[in-house]
Amino acid sequence: MSQIGVDQWVEQSDERRDRYSGWTAPARRAFDKLPTGWKLAVLLGAVAVYPLLVPQGEIRIGITVLLLAMLALGLNVVVGWAGLLDLGFVAFYGFGAYFYAIVASDQLPAHWPTWIAIPIIVAASALLGALLSLPSRRLVGDYLAIMTLFFAQIFVELVRNFGRLPFVSEDLDLTGGPNGIPGVEAWDLFGFQINSFKRHYYLLLILTVVLIAGLHNLNASRTGRAWRALREDTLAAEHMTTPVNKLKLLAFVVGAAIAGLAGSIFAAVQVGVFPNNFALPFLITIYAAVILGGSGSISGVVLGAVAIGYIPDA
Amino acid sequence: MKKRSQWPKLVLLFVAMALVAAACGGDDDAGAGGDTTTTAAAAPAATTTATTEAAPATTMAPEPTTTTAVEMQPCVASIGFIGPITGPVAFIGEVQLNWMQYAVDVFNEELSIDISIVEGDNQFDTAQSATLAAQFVDNADMVAAVGPAGSDNVDAAGAVFEDLDSDFSFVSPSSTRVGIAATYTGMFRTVPTDAEQGPTTADYMIAQGASKVFLIDDQSSYSTGLADSTTAALEAGGVEVVTESVSQDVTDFSALVSTIPDDADFVYLPWQVAANGQIFANQMAEQGKTIRIFGSDGMDSEDFTAAGSLVATFAPDIAGVAGSADLLAGFLAEYESTNTFGPPVFVAAQVIIEATYRVCMTGATPDRASVQAEIRNTDLADSILGSPVSFTSDGDLAGGQFFISEIQEDGTKKIAG
Amino acid sequence: MEFFLQQTVNGLTLGSVYALLALGYSMVYGILKLLNFAHGEVYMFGAFAGYGVLTVLGGASAPLVPIWLMILLMFLAAIVVSSTIGVTLERFAYRPLRNSTRIAPLISAVGASFFLQAAALLLFTANSRTYDAPKLIAIQTGIPIGPIRVWMVRVLVIVTSFTLMILLTLWVNRTRTGKAVRAVSYDREAAAMMGIDVDKVIVVTFLIGSALAGVGGVMVGLVFGRVFHLMGFVAGLKAFTAAVVGGIGSIPGAMFGGLLIGFAEAYTTGYLSSTFQNLIVFGLLIVVLLVRPRGLFGRQELVKV
């Protein structure tokens, strides 16, 4: 019997509280009572202490997972929000990685300071993203997909054979061909070297959290809503005077910038870059993370990245 | 949003498929040998394989040569293996893992020790190699590792070993790039480098009076390194070299075959996939081109049988060497087939196992530093490859050399130079 | 002239195999709007089926049956194996998801593709197999065309694929089932309302598409020789490209797209560079798509808002 004036939820509150049993019950009840912000803080705390408790190999996997999470977040903007099937996404990751490797190794005599290199890499990746968005003015659906796929293939082909291009002199083998570029230097943020697995993990964790916050706000903004309109029905959105081409361009730019940033960290983590790191199988991995987690949802794609990152066979 | 309701079903399906796929990939070596290898399905990387040879070390009396009265500790250690067990060049990894298993079985019995393998599948992916390297360093029982294959994977794993524990030794059975062993403290290799193969190959062609060579690399790091050193040696000898390249993914070479100039004396193929070389040879025959093919050591395989062709080899027909023939027969009795990537793994495992054994013989418990010191002291008078094995201070194989053999009509090989 | 003719034959052989594969891709897409990523693996199993028959019947060097019968049996085995796999995929991987989001069956297809690759690795190991066709049909046999001679196997491949393409076109345009296929591809719901058994039409489409892939697998085994567990990936990618460039869903488009890519690859390697073959071919295809955003034969669909 329901009491008048008390709804079901309130009425059953004791029942819900008793649902938890066993030794974890008090902790879980306490967790339930926390406000959302605090809950997030607890989760973040758990992720933050993780590398202090596990051996190096597990931290290395954690780095892979965080990198994948960043990439999944970036791809989610293009595919999940704007609904553009971008199969060239992995090339931006490669672009960022190669760019960083070239300016932070012995490939070039000039070694750029990290604080200059990173903004330039992110900007350059974004510019490349803007370039790739141009065909999306005319091409839709699977035709856009194959066009971007060509872009990804061409990227790998180019870095693998850069030194053989007819207009490139033999001494200017920037990409190192199939050997890639070993011996990439660590990030150096004003004297602070990011040179261990642990430091890389925290760098990535901070960037991922900032990224999630930024994307969360972006999604709630006017632009976010416009993207969803674009995804659900481009034609209708266009008739409602949504600036379709500008939005497509923006989606590509944001995705590419995120991927370029992730790439520059990957190059430093691996202490090298190799053409095969950016081939199609890895693109499928990023897609798997986005789709498994639920394309369009920020928390979903992050969880997807965690799941996929721990199964290397996927 | 009715779309959402389908997700649980989809996720289930995907996960199920991924699991099945992983399980299939994981235990494909079950049929290969009689061993009861326990291989976990989707474990991220390292899975311990227990050897069936119940090590009799504990029950056997100490070897008569050890005069010390110290009670012998059972010599127990584990060795890692990093190789492409699945992925695009799984034919390399499969054979390598089989030889690894075989070497451990042979020496466990011969030396009465208890060595186990921790196998790691890098899928020929540098990121996987790096993760495996970190996990190997974490594994306190592990004294050293065999692998990885491919110079880019060596770079990725080497950077991790160097960073986390430079006492950890890794013996690569198939990395040939010049200078790479000097970069990493713990690196050794049991194959000669491009610096030996390139000039040997070039000298032979020059001796045959070559004036023009058509060279096609396969865009892998193995291939381009070899192409560079061979080109340099050929050009130094006044031979004109025309270069082309073709991706390993391609299996129709007919368009490329048509471009071979008729006045070339040799077509040099420094290729990793010997089966591609066979297709190339067939397509040359089809178009009536009779120029001789010269293959690198990667083509020294049962898959490449074009009569009259030449291949470089660092182990001239191990079936002909007395001790090696027995080992090879023993291997083939247990595992179906082998290729050129196999025997160097046997040597790599042997080097680590014997180093561990020597540490045990001093009465000490083998650890990474002592094993690395003993690997440096390696001095095998003979090996399955038919040549002595010792290392330079960089970790390169000392005195490695190449031979050129010619493929006969019946598929056997005869040393030509 | 000789060189040009030789490259034309090379391109024609390659192109007709791509075309057969692209047809299966395009037919399935036309009906289900689904990119069947596992199509390359269906083709790979066809190639292995042909290899199995060849090996059981004595191998290329000592065949137990006449050569024409051997080749016929190889094709038949490939057709049976490939179409069984294709229809099974449809039944268990795609049909349950037919009414869900568009991307769901796509992921299922990628999963199926990985599954089949892993299954092949398990069944056949990672070693490359070779048909050794030059022992079956001597490399000296062939039809002379001007200054060059075309090997009988190539003739067989080219003739068979063109025959199959013509038969398929006739079937789609002239038979009742063909008509039903076109109707379902045009509008599935309307077709169902007209009393067309949509499930049956879809099964038939998978059956035919997969059978063509199986035939393609045996052809590749015969003419190029190397059969291995990952051969479907690159081939599937090429077929996908051919189907899209031709205008996905269009049957003449798939044929034309396949041939176009075959020729483009051969001429690029012959006259420009083998190293940058993909670069140049992809660049060319990008231009094609920019000029014709719906592919060469694609029709502009009217979209309702």
Summarize the entry for a quick read.
Chain B is of the alpha/beta class and 417 residues long. Helix content of chain B is 39%, strand content 16%.
Largest sheet of chain C: 2 strands, antiparallel
Strand tally of chain C is 4
Count structural domains of chain C: 1
**Element order, helices and strands of chain C?**
HHHHEHEEHHHHEHHH
- Discrete helix count of chain B: 12
Share of helix of chain B, binned: 25-40%
Cα end-to-end separation of chain C: 55 Å
- CATH superfamily placement of the largest domain in chain B: Response regulator
Portion of residues in beta strands of chain B equals: 15-25%
The total strand number of chain B stands at 15
Give a written overview of the molecule.
The complex is a heterotrimer of chains A (314), B (417) and C (305). Chain A is mainly α and 314 residues long. Helix content of chain A is 68%, strand content 3%. Chain A has a single domain (54-310), classed as ABC transporter involved in vitamin B12 uptake, BtuC (Orthogonal Bundle), CATH 1.10.3470. Chain A has 14 helices and four strands. A two-stranded antiparallel sheet of chain A has the order 1-4. Chain B is an alpha/beta fold. In chain B, helix 7 (221-236) links the parallel strand 7 (212-217) and strand 8 (240-245). In chain C, helix 1 (2-32) packs across helix 10, helix 2 (39-56) packs parallel to helix 4 and helix 10 (231-246) crosses helix 11 (251-272). In chain C, the strands form two sheets. A two-stranded antiparallel ribbon of chain C has the order 1-4. Classes of the chains: A mainly alpha (314), B alpha/beta (417), C mainly alpha (305). At the B-C interface, helix 1, helix 2, helix 8 and helix 9 of B face helix 1, helix 4, strand 3 and helix 11 of C.
